[in-house]
Amino acid sequence: MADITLTGPGGCNGRPSFYITTPIYYVNAKPHLGTAYTTVLCDVQARYRRAKGFDVKFLTGMDEHGQKVEEAAREHGMGPKEWCDSQVPAFEELWRTLEISNDDFIRTTEPRQLRAVSYLWERMRESGYIYKGSYDGWYCVPDETYFTENQVHKADEERHSEGQHLCPDCGRPLTRVQEESWFFRLSAFQDRLLGLYEEHPDFVMPSFRMHEVKSFVEGGLQDLSVSRTSFDWGIRLPFDEGHVTYVWFDALLNYMTAVGYGQPGEGAAAELARRWPAQYHVVGKDIIRFHCVIWPAMLMAMGEALPEHVFAHGFLMVRNDETGQGEKMSKSRGNAIAPQEVIDLLGVEGYRYYFMCDVIPGEDGAISLSRMEQVYNADLANSWGNLVSRALNMSSKYFGGMTPADDPTWASRQSPLRDIACGIEARYSEHMESFEYVAAKDVIMELVHAANHYVEDSAPWTLAKDPSRSGELADVIRNLLESIRISAHLLAPFMPQTSVEVLRRMGATGELDCDDLATACEWGQLAGGVEVTKGDALFPRLAAKG
Ligand code: MSP
Of ligand 1's atoms, which has the minimum distance to the CA of residue 28? Predict the structure, then answer.
């Protein structure tokens, strides 16, 4: 399989490149908990990889073409570009609020995308994998997806629906499309795609999602209509001006555009060589076929390397507290929770922690405001926040506003916290690398809980009364602060500001600007005799509503 290349790109100054992307979001909707979920999920990975020394590029952006956008603009009495421009700031603002550390933000209406898509069409024409024909079939405008007669009938039967045909995926009414179109010979890629899944079982992650992808491809692939003639809002084909590019053909290419594909100049070529293929495309399970079937086939046709992994997460569902069941979030059901509502309740850091550390990324997650409060109070107010405040208060009280003075032999002395902290980074990293954030959080919380118990067991307030035990007291406080220092490093991808603040209060400002997490987490690096700041509670307890 000569055209399947999955080797990683070269890095920068010896640092390996790590390129991670979110889907580009449709410009028609406002950002919501679901789109924010994917974006924070990627942000945590990007921050983690930076701490591990990777040269990270983290891309997000907006999907701005297509029939749906053209129609919405008209409804709002605007031109399509004007409509897009009015919608994009809400995304940019929410990403800033949620501390999203993206390195680039792409919009498919930018000139760089126009250049890349035109270049793609030329390559496609040379490849012989496109041909002109006419499309006659069903189309879901909200999803911008084609459906075959068979798929539609099957869905109608399952739903017992008569009369109007509904989208097999989202259930909204389908539109009949009959128009001249260019087709992509997707059917020619069935064997190569199956070969890819066979040789690279981790191309689709988590592994249980591979099954869905494989059986879809095994069921046979039809050629895909990749240009439209019945509306205008899209990128025109360079060799057939009456056609605009099918929005998914355009959208998927954004991942390569952002690293220089189809752009002039040597800089762009070098960037492409350095960054492509991407390590991860992170997507929701709803768009897995586009990313695991159509996109790799497009890349094979173009003769380009394939991304290393597509990580598909589950959907956030709203937990109905009466039935205990998860329900689809929607405005019409009245169960949608706005991101701002959660931010108001938990703060930004609590928001990030809840979604990343309580919802298992591969699976559907049932979320609820009451669960959010519970997790916040238990993990952040009572455990992490409480530990930090107790340790800093005691250090300040017993050591004149300082951390205990340096002692070169302290770190080699046995302590239950040292035992847990030893090797903690490796255990945590194993989970972080495969997006197992809940498991990674459990590893950190083991140390945090143990440290809280250690306070009770070692009773520093008793030691402080006995001057002959001052050495013991200093060790207890050092062990606590050192556990906090390490936990702050490990929690930083989830709650970056809190970790900065915790380390600042310990007199360790700047500690997080490191790119060697394993070394930073080695036991025994606590700075002795530096000023500590007590500060307000990091996570004030939430009073139960009711
Ligand atoms: N524009 C396309 C993607 C093109 S990528 C080349 C698109 N956009 S979207 O705005 O509809 O975003 C879909 C994505 O939003 C999902 O894949 C998922 O990442 C996220 N989510 C939308 N609703 C969600 C939930 N209820 N739960 C979790 N994430 C969900 O599709």
Answer: 10
Calpha distance 510→384 (Å, rounded)? 21
Weakest mean pLDDT among 90-94, 169-173, 255-259:
169-173
Q: What is the CATH topology of the domain spanning 17-313?
A: Rossmann fold (3.40.50)
Cα 335 to the chain's mean position, in Å?
23
Average pLDDT over residues 364-373: 92
Residue 285 structure tokens: 């399970």
Distances (CA, A) of 216 to 145, 151, 222: 15, 12, 11
What's the Cα-to-Cα distance from 353 to each of 181, 347, 350, 539, rounded to whole Å? 47, 10, 5, 12
Determine contact, residues 21/42, Cβ cutoff 8 Å.
Answer: yes
19-28, 55-64, 171-180, 525-534: the lowest-pLDDT one: 171-180
- Look over the chain and give the mean of its residue pLDDT values, rounded to a whole number: 94
Q: Which residues contact 196 (CB under 8 A, 6 or more apart)?
A: 1, 4, 203, 296, 306
Q: Does domain 366-520 have CATH number 1.10.730.10?
A: yes
DSSP one-letter code for 298: H
Going from the Cα of 88 to the center of ligand 1, the distance in angstroms, rounded, reads: 15
Do the Cβ atoms of 363 and 314 come closer than 8 Å?
yes
Sign of the torsion angle spanned by Cα atoms 389, 101, 295, 192: negative
Q: Please tell me the distance from the alpha carbon of residue 223 to that of residue 218, in angstroms, as a whole number.
A: 15
Degrees, nearest 5: CA angle 535-539-541: 120
**Chain region(s) in the chain for CATH 3.40.50.620:** 17-313
Expressed in angstroms and rounded, the spacing between residue 336 Cα and the centre of ligand 1 is 15
Pocket of ligand 1 (CB under 6 A): 23-26, 29, 34-35, 37-38, 63, 251-252, 283-284, 286-287, 315-316, 329
pLDDT tens-digit profile of 337-365? 999 999 999 999 999 999 999 999 888 88
